[in-house]
Amino acid sequence: MSLAHDFTGKIAFVTGATSGIGRATALAFAKAGAAVTVADVSEEGNLETARLIEEAGGRVLAVRCDVSEAGDVKAALDRTIRTFGRLDVAFNNAGIEQPMAPVAEIEDKDFDRIVAINLRGLFLCMKHQVPLLLKAGGGAIVNTSSGAGVRGFAGQAAYAATKHGVIGMTRSAALDYAKHGLRINAICPGIVDTPMMQRFTGGTPDGIARVIAQEPVGRMGRPEEIAAAVLYLCSDLAAFTIGHAMVVDGGQTVG
Ligand code: NAD
Description:
The chain is α/β, with parallel strands linked by helices. It has one domain (11-190, 223-248): NAD(P)-binding Rossmann-like Domain (Rossmann fold). The protein is 45% helix and 15% strand. It contains eight helices and seven strands; from the N terminus they run E-H-E-H-E-H-E-H-E-H-E-H-H-H-E. A seven-stranded parallel beta sheet has the order 3-2-1-4-5-6-7, with helices on both faces. Helix 3 (70-84) runs parallel beside helix 4 (108-135). Nicotinamide-adenine-dinucleotide (NAD) is lined by residues 15-16, 18-22, 40-42, 45, 65-68, 93-96, 117, 121, 144, 146, 189, 191-192, 194-197. Residues 15-16, 18-22, 40-42, 45, 65-68, 93-96, 117, 121, 144, 146, 189, 191-192, 194-197 line the site of nicotinamide-adenine-dinucleotide.
C-alpha cells in the first residue's frame, strides 16, 4: 500500500468543479496523476479549471453539466468513458446555498431548486456513475455534505435538509456496494473560504467575522484542506472506510 496519494492512471469525475472546493479538488486529483473530467454548469468556469489543470501538466475533459438534469449527467459520463476509457473515482460536489430565512419564509420554488441540485443531482450522478465504477472493478465516490449535514443551523432548513439527505444517501448506497469494491463516503466541510462563502457573508468584515466566530480554530478553512481529505477518502489508505461522513471543519460542530 502506498502512503502517498498516487492517482496515476486513474480517471476522476468532479462536479461543481469551476469554483471553490470542486476546483481545488479537481486540481489536486490532476496533480496526483489522475485524468480529470470537470463537470459544471458554468462553461466558462470549466474552461478556466481545465486551463489550470493543463498548466499543471494534467489531462482534463471539460463538460458543461447541470447535475439536476439526467441527460446532462449521463452525457458527461458517456464523454468521460469515450475520452478516457473508464471511471475510477467521483467527487459529487456541485451544490448551491440557501439565503438565510426561517422555514416559514422559504419560497417553495427555492426549496425545490436546492433539492433538485443538492439532492436529486447527487442521486443522478451516483445512479449513472455506479455501473461505470463497477465495470472498472470498483473505486470510490465522495459526496459533499456539510456541517449542516450533521446538525441544525437556524435560517438554513432547506440547505440542512439537503445536506442531511446527502449523508443518508451516502450511507445507504455505501451498503449497497460495500461487497463490490466500491466505497462511498461523504465529506462535511466547515466554513471554507470560497465564492459560496463570500456570497453568504456578503464579503463584509462583519459578515466574515460572524462566520469565523463559529470556528474554534479561529479562521476559515481553505478549499485545498477539503481537497486533501477527499483524496484520502478516494485513496487506498481509506480502503476500510465505508459510508463515513468525514467532518473537516476546524471544530465547528464539535461543541
Ligand atoms: P461554490 O459556489 O464556490 O462552488 C459551487 C460549484 O457548483 C460552482 O462551480 C457552481 O458552478 C457549481 N454548480 C452549481 N449548480 C450546479 C449545477 N446545477 N450543476 C453543476 N454544477 C453546479 O461553492 P463551494 O463553497 O466550493 O461549495 C462546494 C460544495 O461544498 C457545495 O456542495 C457546498 O454546499 C458545500 N459546502 C461548502 C461549504 C463552504 O463553507 N464553502 C461548507 C460546507 C459545504
